[in-house]
């Protein structure tokens, strides 16, 4: 079942999309403030920053600039802690700050300590960012009801932070199964979307030595666990820097494992998401390839490119949404 839509409110405090941004989800009492490090003096003038909260310090990983380096912290006085970090050589890496505060001031020290521990656990589990934290946080035992409330807060953070350009809490898109449509006006488009996401693709390279399977979800191509991947030592010299970084990350997070008795191949142990079929194809084959041509609909000779073209041609004129229909 696809998640329900949400309304997010972004307020550009100083009128600039690159400045201080306040982000909220309608109906939720939390608020995230995001701003570049250079605007810390301006942000410190805001009264909510001197309260109990949770914060993220984000910057590029010096060893892999394509990968963010993240520090998660909490404090009864976030402003005081941010001042300390700004003057600390150990925290010289961060370029962006995001902090969570509560509009109803119901966020306690125990709550933010719980969130800090869970976020460290989540970021390590996802593996798309390097954690600056040297510990596991401070585990806190909350009453069952409050623990459920904090897990709800984590779900909101997973929605808001990617909108603010911080996707390190973003889980791998889950494959949706077709579900009943309650709104007849949306049934055709929803059924078509479900049909697109239910298609499996396969890739065969080097006379079948390399084989992989994938599916599309939320605009990404997800290469399935069990797919064979060319060992990076066998990759061609023409691969991109992104390829090397993706391989290194997958190996570091144990998402790629050796194949017994085969020094030329690795195997995916988990599903892995890519932004394009060509990027996915290069990762699997160890050489630049045309993903739309090499990926094929499973069990057929139809290429991804032809399948995609067929989907585009099948798109009907968009239906008017309710607001437009009333005009």
For this entry, give a set of tags.
about 325 residues, five-stranded antiparallel beta sheet, 10 helices
Provide a brief overview of the structure.
The protein has helices spanning 40-43, 78-86, 109-126, 144-163, 184-197, 241-252, 277-285, 291-294, 304-313, 322-326; strands spanning 8-12, 21-25, 30-36, 53-61, 64-75, 96-102, 130-131, 200-205, 210-217, 220-223, 228-230, 256-259, 262-268, 272-274, 296-297.
**Mean residue pLDDT:** 87
Major sheet attributes: 7 strands, mixed
Q: Unreliable runs, pLDDT <50, ≥5 residues?
A: 178-193
Structural class by secondary-structure content: alpha+beta
Distance between the termini: 32 Å
Report the total helices: 10
Beta fraction: 25-35%
Q: How many domains is the backbone divided into?
A: 2
* Overall outline: globular
Radius of gyration: 23 Å
Strand order of the largest sheet: 1-2-3-6-4-5-7
Q: Tell me roughly what share of residues is in helical segments.
A: 25-40%
Order of helices and strands: EEEHEEHEHEHHEEEEHEEEHHEHH
> How many beta-strand segments?
15
Describe the structure.
Helix 3 packs across helix 4. This protein has helices spanning 40-43, 78-86, 109-126, 144-163, 184-197, 241-252, 277-285, 291-294, 304-313, 322-326; strands at 8-12, 21-25, 30-36, 53-61, 64-75, 96-102, 130-131, 200-205, 210-217, 220-223, 228-230, 256-259, 262-268, 272-274, 296-297. The strands form 3 sheets. A 7-stranded mixed β-sheet has the order 1-2-3-6-4-5-7. A 5-stranded antiparallel β-sheet has the order 14-10-9-8-15. A 3-stranded antiparallel β-sheet has the order 11-13-12. It is an alpha+beta fold and 327 residues long. It folds into 2 domains: 8-163, no CATH class; 194-313, no CATH class.
């Amino acid at each position: 079942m696809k998640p329900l839509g949400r309304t997010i409110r972004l307020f550009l405090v100083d009128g600039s999309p690159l400045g201080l941004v306040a982000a909220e989800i309608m109906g939720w009492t939390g608020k995230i403030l995001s701003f570049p490090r250079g605007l810390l003096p301006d942000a410190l003038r805001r009264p909510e920053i001197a309260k109990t909260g949770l914060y993220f310090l984000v910057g590029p990983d010096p060893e892999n600039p394509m990968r963010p380096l993240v520090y998660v912290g909490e404090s009864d006085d976030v402003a005081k802690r941010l001042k300390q970090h700004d003057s600390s050589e150990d925290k010289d890496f961060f370029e962006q700050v995001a902090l969570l505060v509560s509009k109803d001031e119901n966020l306690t020290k125990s709550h933010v300590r719980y969130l800090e521990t869970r976020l460290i656990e989540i970021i390590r589990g996802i593996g798309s960012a390097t954690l600056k934290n040297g510990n596991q946080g401070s585990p806190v035992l909350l009453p069952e009801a409050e623990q459920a409330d904090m897990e709800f807060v984590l779900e909101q953070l997973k929605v808001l932070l990617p909108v603010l350009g911080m996707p390190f809490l973003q889980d791998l898109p889950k494959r949706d199964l077709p579900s009943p449509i309650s709104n007849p006006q949306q049934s055709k488009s929803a059924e078509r979307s479900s049909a697109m996401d239910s298609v499996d693709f396969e890739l065969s390279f080097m006379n079948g030595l390399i084989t992989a399977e994938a599916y599309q979800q939320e605009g990404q191509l997800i290469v399935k666990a069990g797919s064979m991947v060319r060992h990076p030592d066998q990759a061609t010299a023409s691969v991109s820097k992104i390829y090397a970084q993706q391989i290194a990350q997958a190996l570091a997070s144990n998402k790629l494992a050796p194949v017994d008795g085969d020094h030329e191949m690795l195997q995916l142990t988990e599903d892995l998401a890519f932004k394009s079929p060509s990027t996915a194809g290069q990762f699997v084959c160890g050489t630049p390839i045309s993903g739309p041509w090499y990926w094929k609909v499973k069990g057929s000779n139809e290429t991804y490119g032809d399948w995609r073209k067929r989907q585009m041609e099948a798109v009907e004129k968009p239906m008017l949404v309710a607001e437009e229909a009333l005009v």
